[in-house]
């Protein structure tokens, strides 16, 4: 009885630590929805240039995911998590000279470095939370992590917007109407300087968390054995010599790519989409929070329904269908209805990472760590798909561009949920 209680307590401890890390993921990641309009105004950018915020942040996952896997082999999961937090802190500090010089390339450098740290954290924490329990309930555990992530994602744009975009519409008008170059420069410099203190605070918090994780008793996990108790899954890995011999993993990486692209479009690009519909900056600065609120609801449903009432792959299928319907509606509606459809895509997206990740690593055995890194590489979809939207927006208009970018994403996820996920 005491051993059972101790195991339960240890399990809750592990979940709590990883939950804290997912909170950090969400807080940092969903600041981009605020940074896009902020830097567009402060650095005088067009839409395509402003979307390099998401490009710089998410493209780092493509380059750093596999190196992160190699780093974790040397450091272990716990030390790797601490290192990732420290790298993120460095990325936050780069914002100080970037703001002082109002240098957009330096802001992008800071975002890339933050993405590097997050890549290391994601590569460590996602297989950890998938493997510490039965694979059948992995989507449920990741959904709990998703709640931590999305609560942070709801809070972070609210907090940062209240600081850096306070009276945003009035400031935008003043900047646009300024006829004296010195006055305009002064307004832009004052606006850019608002970001310094929040990112100093974030750097301090991240460094403190790194120390806490390093000193914690978080145990290592054995990735040489698969979390599945199914003998067939174990034999699946035993007969392979390369991670690329798992079609369901490769297809899963593509699913992660298009899913993250769709998630970033719904969460970070919604503000620009709203501006195109005629909403003011004072209104659109909070739109990311609406999407994250819908995602939070989706994660709660995941926890309630998976796996007791519906399997993770079936729920993924239904979510893809919902995404298809909402995407089509964004094209045929306008105003608040169109924005609501974009925000509700958060509900459709909520199950996708929790379901795709464990389905894709199912049966990988000794290849779990490198397989996880390949899936994390798929996060680069958040870099490329918004850029495609920015390019198409100029020639096709924002609604058709949105439809062209989003509909193929959900159609592919529907395919993966229907047959692509099966190990073979």
Structure, briefly:
The protein has 424 residues and is mainly alpha-helical.
Give short descriptive properties of this protein:
424 residues; mainly alpha; Growth Hormone, Chain: A; globular
Strand count, sense and barrel status of the largest sheet are: none
Residue windows where pLDDT falls under 50 for at least 5 positions: 226-232
Distance between termini? 41 Å
- Give the CATH H-level superfamily: MFS general substrate transporter like domains
Number of strands: 0
- Quaternary organisation of the protein chains: single chain
Compressed to H and E, one letter per element, the order equals HHHHHHHHHHHHHHHHHHHHH
Can you tell me about this structure?
It is a single chain. This protein has 424 residues and is mainly alpha-helical. It has one domain (2-420): MFS general substrate transporter like domains (Growth Hormone, Chain: A), CATH 1.20.1250.20. The protein is built from 21 helices and no strands.
Give the helices and strands, then pairings.
Blueprint: H1 2-29, H2 32-42, H3 47-50, H4 52-93, H5 95-101, H6 104-131, H7 138-164, H8 168-177, H9 181-193, H10 196-215, H11 231-238, H12 247-267, H13 270-276, H14 281-284, H15 287-305, H16 312-332, H17 335-349, H18 352-361, H19 368-377, H20 381-396, H21 398-420
């Amino acid at each position: 009885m005491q051993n059972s209680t101790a195991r339960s307590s240890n399990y809750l401890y592990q979940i709590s630590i990883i939950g804290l890390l997912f909170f950090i993921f969400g807080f940092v990641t969903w600041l981009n929805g605020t940074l896009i309009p902020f830097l567009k105004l402060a650095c005088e950018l067009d839409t395509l240039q402003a979307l390099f915020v998401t490009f710089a942040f998410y493209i780092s996952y493509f380059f750093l995911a596999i190196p992160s896997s190699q780093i974790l082999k040397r450091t272990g999961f716990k030390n790797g998590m601490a290192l990732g937090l420290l790298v993120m802190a460095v990325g936050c500090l780069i914002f100080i000279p970037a703001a002082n010089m109002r240098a957009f390339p330096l802001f992008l450098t800071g975002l890339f470095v933050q993405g590097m740290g997050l890549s290391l954290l994601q590569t460590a924490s996602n297989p950890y939370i998938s493997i510490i329990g039965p694979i059948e309930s992995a989507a449920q555990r990741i959904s709990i992590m998703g709640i931590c992530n999305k609560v942070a994602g709801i809070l972070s744009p609210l907090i940062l917007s209240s600081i850096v975009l306070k009276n945003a519409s009035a400031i935008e008008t003043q900047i646009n109407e300024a006829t004296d170059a010195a006055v305009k420069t002064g307004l832009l410099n004052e606006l850019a300087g608002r970001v310094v203190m929040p990112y100093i605070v974030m750097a301090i918090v991240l460094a403190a968390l790194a120390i806490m994780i390093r000193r914690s008793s978080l145990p290592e996990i054995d990735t040489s054995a698969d979390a599945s108790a199914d003998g067939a899954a174990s034999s699946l890995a035993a007969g392979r010599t390369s991670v690329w011999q798992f079609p369901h993993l490769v297809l899963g990486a593509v699913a992660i790519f298009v899913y993250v692209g769709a998630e970033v479009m719904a969460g970070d690009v919604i503000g620009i989409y709203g501006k195109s519909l005629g909403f003011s900056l004072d209104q659109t600065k909070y739109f990311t929070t609406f999407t994250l609120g819908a995602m939070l609801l989706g994660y709660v449903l995941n926890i309630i329904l998976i796996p007791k009432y519906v399997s993770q792959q079936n729920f993924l299928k239904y979510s893809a269908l919902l995404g298809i319907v909402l995407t089509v509606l964004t094209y045929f509606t306008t105003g608040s209805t169109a924005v609501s459809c974009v925000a509700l895509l958060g509900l459709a997206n909520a199950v996708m990472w929790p379901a795709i990740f464990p389905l894709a690593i199912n049966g990988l055995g000794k290849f779990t760590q490198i397989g996880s890194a390949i899936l994390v590489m798929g996060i680069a979809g958040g870099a490329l798909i918004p850029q495609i939207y920015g390019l198409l927006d100029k020639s096709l208009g924002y609604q058709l561009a949105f439809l062209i970018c989003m509909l193929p994403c959900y159609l592919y996820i529907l395919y993966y949920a229907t047959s692509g996920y099966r190990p073979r």
